[in-house]
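Moderator note: this is an archived Q&A kept for reference. The question asked for a predicted structure of one protein chain; the sequence and the answer are reproduced below.
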Amino acid sequence: MRLKFLIVFPNNFYFITNILIISWSSFLLLFFFGPIQYPYSSEIFYLNLIFFIGFYFGYFFYSLLPKKIIVKNKNENNENSLIIKATLLFSLLYLILVIYDSLIAGNVLEYGITVAREMMYYEGRRGSVIGMLNILLGGMPIIGITILIVLKKEEIGNYFYLLLGSSILGIFSYFLSGGRNFFVISLFVLFFVYLLQNKNRQKTNLLKKIKTKYKILIAILILLSISYVLYLFIERAELRGITVYDTAMNLERDFGVKVTLSPFQNEFLSLIYYIFVMLVFYITHSLSLLSEYFYINYEQLLGGVNTFPLFTMFIDKIFETSFYQEAMNKLLLNGIYLSLLGRVYLDFSFFGVFMVSFFLGIILNYTLSRARYSDGILIKLVSATMCATILLMPMYNILAGTAISIILSIFIIYFTKVFFLRKNDVQR
């Protein structure tokens, strides 16, 4: 296969830059002009500067490498058929495991999602075999929706409605384990899949494939789910015997911030306002809380445990070690979001932030280039996942959970496909 020197600049560059501009401008707008006033350290800005230098250095480094011309895969139809069947099978298995773990073992219907979630962590079921399998298969519903976006209905064939049903149920089942982050992040990932498909000048036919009444039903379910995500702020406050107002005011005591009081006299509008305050804190607090580590000159590097905790949890489960818990005990506040850069900094210091940013720039440029010129289902999803990673980077490290779960599911589908393709070749 001959090589072609190709500088991938305009399309990828502006696409990625737009994501970063939207991400950081939205975040900083809420951080500086929102209803919460934060203390913060100037080192935070140096950390972000290092990220941008490393990221674009990696981006342009890949752009200057010689590229192979992408040749259309002659075996694509057979591969897609295997991907569809494997995704459907694993999606159904995931649904069965979630139903057992949440409805039967977790008693979600009896205790409610929030209480059941706390019990799951208390009982250690998240680290059980079924919990690990749920993590491995958690990305299957997202792969299913990606297939529906990328392929035409006739290419999916008789599996279309079964795949649609199992994928939608799978995505909404994230709530059964309290996974509101997983649900919201999956929406961002699928939005990028949609953009990449249109970017490839092959407009998705997904909306054309579904009848109007089902479109309306899906839209209603998404709106209800987003409403439920916001309602969780109320439910969690009620479980502690306090109001959302009390929760918002407690932020001042617990995190040293200043909360602007509601300008509304109406009780309902004030409730909405304080839910908004909690949402803003949820989105923006990572920048301020990371500053605490600079104030005390924190030097206990965690070696990747904080950035990629799922891998550490797998190792602890297999070898009966306790690396994850030991690392969490070294944090100032366990369970607090510190953004992607914050987690990388605590693991590898400033140099680690540069190197991770450098490789992230390479990976994103590579996957976007492949996604633009390829009809591949899996590469589009990998690229979309990386786009969601940098979009949500200021507030949350999706590599700590959702993104890794999606990528692990992609690996399972990929190796399943390779296994059966080789098996078919041997039989011939």
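Archived answer notes: The beta strands are 3-5, 36-37, 66-68, 258-259.
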